[in-house]
Amino acid sequence: MALFGVSLFTLFSLLLVALFPSLCFTADPSIFYDLRLSYITASPLGVPQQVIAVNGKFPGPLINSTTNDNVNVNVHNDLDENLLMTWSGIQMRRDSWQDGVLGTNCPILPKRNWTYQFQMKDQIGSFFYFPSLNFQRASGGFGPIIINNRVIIAIPFAQPDGDITITIGDWYTQNHTALRSALDAGKGLAMPDGVLINGKGPYRYNNTLVPDGIEYETIQVDPGKTYRVRVHNVGISTSLNFRIQNHFLLLAETEGYYTTQQNFTSLDIHVGQSYSFLVTMDQNASSDYYIVASARFVNESLWQRVTGVAVLRYSNSKGPATGPLPDPPNDFYDKSWSMNQALSIRQNVSASGARPNPQGSFHYGQINVTQTYVIKTVPPEIINGTLRTTLNGISFVNPDTPIRLADKYNVTGAYKLDFPDQPLNRTPRVDRSVINATYKGFIEIIFQNNDTVMQSFHVDGYSFFVAGMGTDEWTVDSRSRYNKWDSISRSTTQVFPGGWTAVLISLDNAGVWNIRTENLDRWYLGQETYMKIINPQENGATEMDKPENVLYCGALQYLAKDQNNSAGSVLRGNSKLLFTLLVAFFALINISS
Ligand SMILES: *[C@@H]1O[C@H](CO)[C@@H](O)[C@H](O)[C@H]1NC(C)=O
Ligand SMILES: *[C@@H]1O[C@H](CO)[C@@H](O)[C@H](O)[C@H]1NC(C)=O
Ligand SMILES: *[C@@H]1O[C@H](CO)[C@@H](O)[C@H](O)[C@H]1NC(C)=O
Ligand SMILES: *[C@@H]1O[C@H](CO)[C@@H](O)[C@H](O)[C@H]1NC(C)=O
Ligand SMILES: *[C@@H]1O[C@H](CO)[C@@H](O)[C@H](O)[C@H]1NC(C)=O
Ligand SMILES: *[C@@H]1O[C@H](CO)[C@@H](O)[C@H](O)[C@H]1NC(C)=O
Ligand SMILES: *[C@@H]1O[C@H](CO)[C@@H](O)[C@H](O)[C@H]1NC(C)=O
Ligand SMILES: *[C@@H]1O[C@H](CO)[C@@H](O)[C@H](O)[C@H]1NC(C)=O
Ligand SMILES: *[C@@H]1O[C@H](CO)[C@@H](O)[C@H](O)[C@H]1NC(C)=O
Ligand SMILES: *[C@@H]1O[C@H](CO)[C@@H](O)[C@H](O)[C@H]1NC(C)=O
Ligand SMILES: *[C@@H]1O[C@H](CO)[C@@H](O)[C@H](O)[C@H]1NC(C)=O
Ligand SMILES: *[C@@H]1O[C@H](CO)[C@@H](O)[C@H](O)[C@H]1NC(C)=O
């Protein structure tokens, strides 16, 4: 009988391998992280203030992963308010349950923790995480994410000698609760107090402009080596020009896609955007060099203090950097240089991405658009007595019950599927309108920025082709200016004030996905919505089922147990089938013995 049992077991194992190739013996590796968010006191600009640290560090630690890794991140909320962590640019294939925004997740309450479980499915590149609620990103809580290529996949450049991550962002000495109160009181944000580089204030390049005693960032390098420098704008609302004195920035990647390689002396990086540069240390180290991130499209003489300065130090450096900073682009009144620079960023269509096939093998320019959405922003306005922002006249309020959870439990009225595909000429209102998008559709979204500030727009769960940009009102004729061959794919695009950006998206990722401005103040006041993309033949294969540790809230509050008692399971989607098989297996063993 024992022998029979073994052969049965073998049979069963084979059956498992056949049924679950990714689950069983050829499983993708799992990686585990604990991220604990707490307040610390820090003085990045010389003024003590409340900062959100991750594991005691500001910025938070790197999540270093490889394509297809199963990531388990246990997020601990030691703050005094609700928390959700979102993973900017990570596509969460079929799994918007892990996306960490209020339309898809109930918040993690103070003093609780929750484990996110997702796969870095078919992605490579540079991304970052940040807390998505309550304006918290303005106080920190962010950190970088790297998805490395699998060793069998070639990268379109020589293996760099080192990897350097740099976060840049505008910063206020007021904490996020104070900034939030200002917005709640109907006031806009004032000029930021500075720009931080890796959470640190400016190097004292000018004794008048920078006070003494500020800690600055130093990046150590060796002469002759080439580094992959990954730069993320994690700030609130300021576009930044990034440059390294006397060094070329050879652009290589943006938010998960390889670009054609070209040298820049400086690049505009807008809020929420990520880039990789290959930087060769080809100078003779007569001194250290400045690394600069300065506010863009502002009156430089008024915004001088909104400049981040770090130091690039060769191991054979002969002394500190001195003299003026490398010049920023001088075009306060002219956006064309910046737009041309943005349009010059092209996809390397012959390089492999996360898979061996070329990045350009999806010929997006030949696919017919199934629906067009024109999404328009205007400056903040008063709706019902409070200052709000809108998309197509709708200022979004999050549903009390997350959208897919409401669907699963037949909660009615949680949201509406009536987000308009055009900016309608009607009274702006506060609402829960979501886009009813068609699974497998190929859509065109035109972000029309009728606001007075530079904006970035981000779509969760997807990357999109940035087909075109203009400085005017978009019309159907604008399509003739689209790049239909090698537009860059990314998840965050800039939209110039008074202008438009058109993106093309293939809707192959079922779920509910946030569309938002990355400008934190505009987002906070209502400039977001969701796209609900559900396969009408949904059978569990195109969308993951809710995770076993799912949190409940809103109309489903009654289902909430003590959050800390719900141990997460690694088995998702297939788990029910697996359970059935196991039952069958043990039943067989019982019969046979
Ligand atoms: C945040 O700022 C407000 C207003 O300045 C202040 O009252 C509050 O104490 C600050 N919070 C912390 C934890 O420092
Ligand atoms: C990330 O992990 C890989 C191994 O998987 C390692 O080679 C690399 O040095 C790590 N990168 C960083 C920046 O720590
Ligand atoms: C909370 O963290 C503990 C370990 O610190 C873990 O065992 C538990 O599963 C976590 N809870 C959730 C809901 O992730
Ligand atoms: C420092 O900045 C001030 C204000 O812009 C300027 O007047 C001064 O010349 C600068 N000093 C040096 C040494 O560059
Ligand atoms: C970029 O600049 C480097 C010098 O740092 C040079 O060696 C390289 O050839 C340039 N590459 C391109 C594509 O222009
Ligand atoms: C190398 O350093 C010397 C001063 O030590 C300087 O005169 C020279 O211009 C530098 N060369 C380069 C290529 O930067
Ligand atoms: C910038 O601000 C300064 C000081 O207020 C002012 O004199 C100057 O005219 C402004 N420059 C531009 C281009 O608006
Ligand atoms: C796109 O539409 C045109 C006409 O509307 C049609 O002729 C063509 O076959 C379509 N292409 C694809 C790939 O469906
Ligand atoms: C929701 O409604 C559907 C169809 O009306 C029903 O099959 C399902 O059991 C309901 N689900 C819950 C959790 O009540
Ligand atoms: C203003 O608020 C009232 C009450 O909450 C609501 O009924 C009405 O629809 C709101 N109006 C707009 C334009 O949002
Ligand atoms: C959403 O769109 C689908 C077609 O894609 C349609 O069948 C359905 O009725 C729409 N739902 C609503 C609420 O408009
Ligand atoms: C907003 O749109 C109106 C009407 O098309 C136009 O007159 C105005 O210049 C626009 N403003 C901006 C900042 O785009």
CATH class group of the largest domain: Mainly Beta
Shape: globular
Per DSSP E runs of 2 or more residues, the count of β-strands stands at 33
**Lateral strand order in the biggest sheet:** 10-9-12-17-14-15
Name of the CATH superfamily of the largest domain: Cupredoxins -  blue copper proteins
Residues in β-strands, percent: 25-35%
Classification by helices and strands: mainly beta
**Low-pLDDT runs:** 1-25, 564-593
CATH architecture of the largest domain: Sandwich
Helix content: 10-25%
Largest sheet report: 6 strands, mixed
Integer-rounded radius of gyration: 25 Å
Distance between the termini: 6 Å
Number of domains: 4
Hetero compounds? 2-acetamido-2-deoxy-beta-D-glucopyranose
The total of helices stands at 6
At CATH level 3, the topology of the largest domain is: Immunoglobulin-like
Detailed description of the structure:
This protein has helices spanning 2-19, 176-184, 336-343, 403-408, 520-524, 575-592, and strands spanning 30-42, 49-54, 63-66, 70-77, 85-88, 113-119, 125-131, 143-148, 162-171, 194-197, 218-221, 226-233, 240-244, 249-254, 257-264, 267-269, 274-280, 289-295, 307-314, 371-377, 381-383, 386-388, 394-396, 429-431, 435-438, 442-449, 455-459, 464-470, 489-490, 492-495, 500-506, 511-517, 528-534. Helix content is 11%, strand content 33%. The radius of gyration is 25 Å and the shape is globular. The protein has a 6-stranded mixed beta sheet, with no helix packed on it. It has a 5-stranded mixed beta sheet with strand order 11-19-18-13-16. Residues 1-25 and 564-593 have low confidence and may be disordered. It has 4 domains: 2-22 and 548-592, no CATH class; 28-154, Immunoglobulin-like; 156-329, Cupredoxins -  blue copper proteins (Immunoglobulin-like, Sandwich); 364-534, Immunoglobulin-like, CATH 2.60.40.420. The chain is mainly beta and 593 residues long. Strand 1 (30-42) and strand 2 form a beta hairpin. Helix 1 (2-19) runs antiparallel to helix 6. The structure holds 2-acetamido-2-deoxy-beta-D-glucopyranose (NAG) (12 copies). Residues 283-284, 286 line the site of one 2-acetamido-2-deoxy-beta-D-glucopyranose.
